[in-house]
Design goal:
This protein has 473 residues and is mainly beta. The chain has one domain. Helices cover 6% and strands 32% of the residues. It contains four helices and 28 strands. The strands form eight sheets. Strands 1, 22, 23, 24, 27 and 28 form a six-stranded mixed sheet that branches. A four-stranded antiparallel sheet has the order 2-3-4-7, with no helix packed on it. The chain has a four-stranded antiparallel sheet with strand order 10-11-12-13, with no helix packed on it. The chain is globular. The N terminus and C terminus are likely disordered.
Length: 473
């Protein structure tokens, strides 16, 4: 007689649909230098780790289309890849921000390796702040000064990436903690606001796009919070049995084309669902008007062994329609890690008739509830087919966004932009695969998708902006 766990494992296996035969083609590659400054000169002073506070880096953590070749790109909590103080996980008082960039595709001449060229242009930098007072770390016992920022002023308290900027008497989802680790971003349909997901809380905040002021915090269910807080990630993980895994909170964010609903996805399963050894992470549906939530189970692909599971992490979710989405799963291998990229895949999912799992806890209980998924794009295979070596594929391909349609050989195609988080390391030291130092810019890879390979696609529309279709005739 088959036992229950075996049956559930079989159900989970069959939840993964066969790979799709999508004709998704690389059409352009662009980059922004990882050694230049952004447009916030008032934050240029060195951080605690000596890195300039306005270094243009990490902007592929989240990428959102804003209409008219304009995109919003967000760095995460700042340059913490430089070792200086393990008591705060090497985080610094980097002021959280978003970058406004232009990503315009221009047709190349016939015979070029790729049909389009892409020369990204930084337009503006916007700092993120709260009108209400925020809690900053004192620095006591950490060999650090206070986390309060000199740039703060009345009704303008900036969010930062420093991991000790929290109040220990509250759970991690307390909205007035100053620490903020942005990972996903989307633009409202009126073009006036942006929504950002975070790993520390996890939070989802709404900001005014023009000023950077927070105007709303969405309350997530208590199951996502941890109660024992620490500025050290490993300590925070070991001190909790439920809630998000430290530094693996609300990673991806989608907005439906009608602009009414957000979908956030956790980078890794909750601690009570297995943590980093768990196979099922959660998607959270949020009604923007009411704040009401629903949850769905997403199955990760196991790239380890049964004896030693090694599930990948989820970096992004992107809406195709109000029920269909792309999900980015990846390893941490490639350029920036000193290794070769292996697993970076984008899956297509459909939440129509998907089981709701808000009241279900535990890996085995989620197994039979996992939504089906279909392979949409093997990014490593696609890039290597275009002559890019595995060791030169960025380790952290995290941002996904649809852009404007283009014409290729008189056929209209949708565009999918993929951006990397370069960890604010503009130059990488020599490693096994690179005998000399190499540049590590903020990169953008653009793919063309035929409409037959993206059925049901509904582009997000922004008020007051007309569709602009470019390309070769």
């Amino acid at each position: 007689m088959l036992n229950k766990s075996f049956i559930l494992s079989l159900l989970a296996v069959f939840a993964v649909a066969p790979a799709a035969n999508a004709e998704v083609k690389l059409i352009a590659i662009g980059s922004l230098d990882g050694k230049i400054s952004d447009r916030s000169q008032e934050t240029s002073a060195p951080l605690e780790n000596g890195v300039p506070g306005n270094l243009l880096g990490g902007i592929g953590s989240g990428l959102a289309y804003a209409g008219d070749n304009t995109f919003i790109a967000i760095p995460d909590r700042g340059p913490n890849a430089v070792s200086y103080n393990s008591a705060v996980s090497d985080t610094a008082s980097y002021i959280n921000r978003f970058q406004t960039i232009k990503l315009e595709l221009k047709p190349n001449s016939r015979g070029s390796l790729l049909p389009f060229s892409l020369n990204p242009c930084l337009i503006d930098t916007t700092l993120l702040f709260s009108k209400e007072p925020l809690y900053y770390g004192t620095g006591e016992g950490l060999d650090l000064p206070s986390g309060v920022l000199a740039l703060n002023k009345k009704n303008q308290n900036y969010f930062t990436g420093r991991s000790d900027n929290f109040i220990s008497t509250q759970v991690s989802t307390y909205p007035n903690d100053a620490r903020f680790d942005p990972e996903g971003v989307r633009v409202s349909n009126n073009g006036k606001d942006i929504f950002i997901s975070d790993e520390y809380g996890p939070y989802i905040y709404q900001f005014n796009r023009r000023t950077g002021k927070r105007i709303r915090a969405f309350t997530l269910p208590s199951k996502f919070a941890v109660s024992n807080l620490s500025p050290v990630s490993d300590t925070e993980i070991s001190g909790n049995t439920s809630g998000r895994v430290a530094n693996k909170g609300m990673e991806g964010l989608a907005i439906t084309p009608d602009g009414k609903t957000l979908f956030g996805i956790l980078q890794s399963p909750l601690l009570q669902d297995g943590g980093t050894n768990g196979a099922y992470t959660r998607i959270v549906k949020i009604d923007i008007e009411t704040g009401a939530t629903q949850e769905y189970a997403y199955q990760l692909d196991n790239i380890g062994t049964a004896a030693k599971p090694k599930y990948p992490t989820v970096s992004e979710i992107l809406a195709i329609s109000d029920r269909q989405f792309l999900v980015d799963e990846r390893d941490g291998k490639g350029l920036g890690d000193g290794s070769k990229a292996v697993f970076k895949k984008i899956y297509r999912i459909d939440l129509t008739n998907a089981p709701e799992v808000s009241n279900i806890t535990g890996e085995s209980n989620l197994a039979s509830k996992a939504i089906s998924k279909t392979l949409f794009l093997d990014v490593v295979a696609a890039l290597t087919q275009n002559g890019i070596k595995e060791e030169d594929i960025p380790a952290k391909l995290e941002g996904l966004a649809f852009g404007e349609d283009v014409f290729i050989n008189r056929v209209k195609k949708h565009t999918l932009f993929i951006a990397n988080d370069n960890d604010f390391l503009g130059t990488l030291a020599p490693d096994t695969n690179h005998p000399t130092s190499v540049d590590n810019p903020n990169k953008f890879f653009v793919f063309a998708v035929d409409s037959t390979d993206l059925p049901g696609f509904v582009p997000q529309k922004f008020r007051g902006q007309d569709e602009d279709i470019r390309g070769e005739d």
